[in-house]
């Protein structure tokens, strides 16, 4: 995991925007081979979008051959509502760059069948070839997209009930009126995000410092879904100084030293691309897969760790022995002991029959 720390929100936003531009330009997208970008909404990425627009107008990047998939959308509010995520994205980003509307994908929170909409969204991502880079923000409770505490780490795009804390936090966009905030949303799942080739998260402000600490210094926990990035091969978290308030000084110094070494060596992130590895063949990780995972031949644990495909065959099981009545008295070599203890089952049956007779 890479943790990039900048002095303030502007510095963090500039780093993320320039990194995205670098990845797009390095990819050299075409109509036949587009760059697929996952995008969030909320206050954290606003600075990133602003800089991306400025760089586009300066001719430093083109979005003509970029396909986008947004993380989420509210359920039940009109698409043209001032606080819908459709409106947010067109207001702050899409309407200012040369992206084709047909290449923009945002979940439809008013679809007649919401679950079918979620399935279709996953299929659209697969048809596009998967997401190359997923940009994300987080909530104060560490949720990524709308995968709030308790969400399955193997979750896919689905309908999600929002937590009260999220509703309360989002009320600032609805005139601070909680009653106006939607109670449900459509969201990509944790596993949907983890299957992107690269994940970049921007975290700003002290309010989110505890979530960052849980992700960086503690283990993977479905109560802090941001921590699932520990399972991704190419995650990057970009923060301002305020967001590091809960981190240990040693942790901050460690990640700053990593960045310094990387910059001195002339690279930022090792990725499986020709630009990073030269013009020769790109090395591929070889994994011997089995057609039917079993106890004797389990599926290898790789970056597909969280795929919800458990082994379907477990042919070898220990056989439970038949239960046999047993008493401790029968194990003690004292012939008259049984006379002084509770009668055995056979004697109990005889005595019971004698009483009833």
From TrEMBL:
Residues 9-222 form the Glucosamine/galactosamine-6-phosphate isomerase domain. NCBIfam families: nagB. Residues 276-301, 310-329, 334-357 are annotated as: Disordered. This is Glucosamine-6-phosphate isomerase. It comes from the Eukaryota. The keyword Hydrolase applies. GO terms for biological process: carbohydrate metabolic process; glucosamine catabolic process; N-acetylglucosamine catabolic process; N-acetylneuraminate catabolic process. Keywords: Carbohydrate metabolism, Hydrolase. PROSITE patterns: GLC_GALNAC_ISOMERASE. GO terms for molecular function: glucosamine-6-phosphate deaminase activity; identical protein binding. The keyword Protease does not apply. HAMAP family: GlcN6P_deamin (MF_01241). It holds the Pfam family Glucosamine_iso. It catalyses: alpha-D-glucosamine 6-phosphate + H2O = beta-D-fructose 6-phosphate + NH4(+). Belongs to the glucosamine/galactosamine-6-phosphate isomerase family. Residues 291-301, 344-357 have a biased composition (Polar residues). GO terms for cellular component: cytosol. Its EC number is 3.5.99.6. Catalyzes the reversible conversion of alpha-D-glucosamine 6-phosphate (GlcN-6P) into beta-D-fructose 6-phosphate (Fru-6P) and ammonium ion, a regulatory reaction step in de novo uridine diphosphate-N-acetyl-alpha-D-glucosamine (UDP-GlcNAc) biosynthesis via hexosamine pathway.
């Amino acid at each position: 995991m890479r943790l990039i720390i900048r002095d303030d929100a502007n510095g963090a936003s500039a780093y993320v925007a320039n990194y995205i531009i670098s990845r797009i330009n390095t990819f050299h997208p075409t109509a036949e081979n587009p760059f697929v970008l996952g995008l969030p909404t909320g206050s954290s990425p606003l600075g990133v979008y602003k800089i991306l627009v400025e760089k586009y107008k300066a001719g430093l990047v083109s979005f003509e051959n970029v396909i986008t998939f947004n993380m989420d959308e509210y359920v039940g509010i009109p698409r043209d509502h001032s606080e819908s995520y459709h409106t947010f994205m067109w207001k702050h980003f899409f309407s200012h760059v040369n992206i084709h509307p047909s290449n923009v994908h945002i979940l439809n929170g008013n679809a007649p069948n919401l679950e079918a909409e979620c399935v279709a969204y996953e299929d659209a991502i697969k048809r596009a070839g998967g997401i190359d880079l997923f940009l994300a923000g987080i909530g104060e409770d560490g949720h990524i997209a709308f995968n709030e505490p308790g969400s399955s780490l193997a979750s896919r795009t689905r309908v999600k009930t929002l937590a009260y804390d999220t509703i309360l936090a989002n009320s600032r966009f609805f005139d601070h009126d909680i009653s106006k905030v939607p109670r449900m949303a459509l969201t990509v799942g944790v596993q949907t995000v983890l299957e992107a080739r690269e994940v970049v998260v921007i975290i700003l402000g002290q309010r989110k410092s505890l979530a960052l600490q849980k992700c960086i210094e503690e283990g993977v926990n479905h109560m802090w879904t941001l921590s699932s990035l520990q399972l991704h091969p190419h995650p990057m978290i970009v923060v301002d100084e305020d967001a590091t308030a809960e981190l240990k000084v040693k942790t901050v110094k460690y990640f700053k030293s990593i960045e310094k070494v990387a910059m001195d060596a002339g690279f930022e992130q090792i990725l499986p691309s020709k630009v990073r590895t030269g013009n020769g063949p790109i090395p591929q990780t070889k994994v011997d897969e089995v057609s039917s995972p079993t106890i004797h031949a389990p599926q290898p644990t790789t970056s597909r760790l969280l795929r919800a495909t458990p082994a379907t065959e477990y042919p070898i099981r220990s056989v439970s022995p038949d239960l046999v009545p047993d008493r401790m008295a029968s194990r003690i070599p004292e012939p008259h002991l049984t006379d002084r203890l509770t009668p055995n089952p056979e004697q109990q049956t005889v005595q019971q029959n004698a009483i009833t007779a």
